[in-house]
Amino acid sequence: MAAHRSGPLKQQNKAHKGGRHRGRGSAQRDGKGRLALKVLSRKVRKELSRVDQRHRASQLRKQKKEAVLAEKRQLGSKDGPPHQVLVVPLHDRISLPEAFRLLQDKDTGTVHLNEWGSTHSFVLLCPRLKHRWYFTSARPGDLHAVLDMAKVADTILFLLDPLEGWDSTGDYCLSCLFAQGLPTYTLAVQGISGLPPRKQIDARKKLSKAVEKRFPDDKLLLLDTQQEAQMLLRQLANQKQRHLAFRDRRAYMFAHAADFVPSEENNLVGTLKISGYIRGQTLNVNSLLHIIGQGDFQMKQIDAPIDPFLLNPRVVKSQDSGAAMEICAVDAVVDMEEDLKVLMKADPERQESLQTEVIPDPMEGEQTWPTEEELNEANDCLKESSKVVKKVPKGTSSYQAEWILDEDGESGGEDEYDDTEHEDFIEEESQDESSEKEEEEECETMTIGESVHHDLYDENVDEEAEEKMLEKYKQERLQEMFPDEVDTPRDVAARIRFQKYRGLKSFRTSPWDPKENLPQDYARIFQFQNFTNTRKRIFKEIEEKEVEGAEVGWYVTLHVSEVPISVIEYFKRGAPLIVFSLLPHEQKMSVLNMVVSRHPGNTEPVKAKEELIFHCGFRRFRASPLFSQHTAADKHKFQRFLTADVALVATVYGPITFPPASVLLFKQNSNGMHSLIATGHLLSVDPDRMVIKRVVLSGHPFKIFTKMAVVRYMFFNREDVLWFKPVELRTKWGRRGHIKEPLGTHGHMKCSFDGKLKSQDTVLMNLYKRVFPKWTYDPYVPEPVPWMKSEISSTVPEVDME
């Protein structure tokens, strides 16, 4: 009997998936005893019992508390630097001398006065509190001095008015300090005791509500009597210190005294001796110094004089008699100058170089003179390429064929080639600027009639500045209404005018080589192979590696070489002399990229490549930035103006600075004042970040045939249409298309689109080129005109609206 065979319609069940639901034994057999790292780490964590976990958490809390207490005890103690306090009055009714008089109480401690020009400072030694303070203040109206002193201050003491708190000048100062980064601060109210007793409580309540916006959860202290001053000192001594990232990894010093020794060869340059306390990190004599507002310098040696502000004066016993004799440290300095201790001297082999730029070699990359074989090979290739295939009658010789014309009416040979059409992508900056000026759209000039107000208003108005500002407002408005649109010139061919531009299929995905056609200035700068890794390595060395030099808290004298005499003159006029040590490579020039946002208090248009004043970390310099979009792509669109709604990236040539670092942008007005226009932070040091400028050419549909259209006014000759034929077109209503062929000789062209056009639509063509910043870096910033209340509140004279 034959066996049954299943047919094609028999049910087929799925096979059992044993691998997914295998047991522990099969898994161990497959793994052969191997365990993953994660399993091992989990077992170690599970071994800690709940009691051990609590014990470990308490140990971590204890270590953090001890670190905070050690920092408090170190600051202002006999082994650490004095507690530096910057006193900033925020209202014009605040009396700074009266506040200093209350703090200079002889019952509290010993006072050492130190006055340079118009900058008042004093040292307060308090053995009872085992603390010493160094109170400083900036010159009235000098904003840059306030910002520079805030960079090195341990605490900022803000003095408030009991009625208003701060005025417009104080609010402007607070905006700058908040953008730069605040260290530890304290709020004190002066003059509240002068109010009637009934109004004092109401004034404190109103002031507390006003202060909550800027300083939430902060306590207001009083400063009207000696007792309140002592309470304020205790509060300053017991406060937890806040850290600024850009100064914690560098050694810095606020100069207490300075002396200049001119060199024998030139009296205008010499050695500057700066005395003060080392803060932040250990200072090595072989590293470079940066004097804020003056530049980078090298050190010769570091001396260790006697600390002039000892908390407890030293006691010297006489050999003849057992009487003790107290010697004040200030008087001992003169006697001990001969026995001055030299800590370190610079080693020329290990000292950092002051080289800021690369000296470009004009012959680098040039070819050597070719050999005879290369010349013969080139001639053979030229002959082969110059041969042209023609149709000639039978029996024609090669000599006769040379005289036979083509169908186009031209003899054989190479085609004509216009070198100007394939000029380099980037030329010198001057040519680039001239092309950009031609590119800008012309605007109509507008005459302003005479004011109907009184003559005093007209006297305070600068007509030229008003005309320039009106022109900027017009250009900014045109840029908002018609972004990047440019009129095609009629006197110059478009293929010549826009020969440095190219079309892109996609701005986001189309490739662009960052090393292509770089300007000559890129041969002068330095570039990191990997900036992030270099930054991590340097910061790790700071934390782990021990550096030989002057320790934190030591009172030393730095011998800075090759310093111009203008630095000591600047210091004697009352300006602060502040020194920062540089990390490796920070003296070299590169391309800085900073993320900035428009300050809401300034609404004037700011154009790209306009000279601005930068506060970048501990540096202050002038430069002309480019503005671009802040995106994560490899190409970033150039912005012609600093817009107020989004954050942009400012790109400048400048010395390398390792982030984090705060950035403030100021603009010098016609009256000499510096106004804050933007704030932000340092993004990166990357010359390969590409800033791409876009130009939009516009045309109008003349005749529309379904998906075909005749477009005019984009070009004005036939050759331009053929030159830009490969570039894709788009419209404002979202259509995309291409140029099919030119029509006639006046620039009309037939275009095809992916849909039917509307008669009111506009045809656009996007062209792109890479732009680079101008080399306008200047480390010397002119002193601003002191800012006053009326000038800060409004730059335009008040108008009587009645």
TrEMBL record:
Residue stretches making up the Bms1-type G domain: 81-242
Cell compartments where the protein resides: Nucleus, Nucleolus
Family annotation (SMART domains): AARP2CN, DUF663
Pfam families documented for this protein: AARP2CN, RIBIOP_C, Tsr1_G-like
Bias type Acidic residues, positions: 404-442
InterPro entries tied to this protein: AARP2CN, Bms1/Tsr1, BMS1_TSR1_C, G_Bms1/Tsr1_dom
Domain of life of the native organism: Eukaryota
Keywords, sorted A to Z: Nucleus, Ribosome biogenesis
Biased composition (Basic and acidic residues): 46-55, 65-76
Main location: nucleus
Residue span of region Disordered: 1-82, 403-442
Ranges of compositional bias, category Basic residues: 13-24
Function: Required during maturation of the 40S ribosomal subunit in the nucleolus.
Family assignment from sequence similarity: Belongs to the TRAFAC class translation factor GTPase superfamily. Bms1-like GTPase family. TSR1 subfamily.
The protein's name in its UniProt record: Pre-rRNA-processing protein TSR1 homolog
Gene giving rise to this polypeptide: TSR1
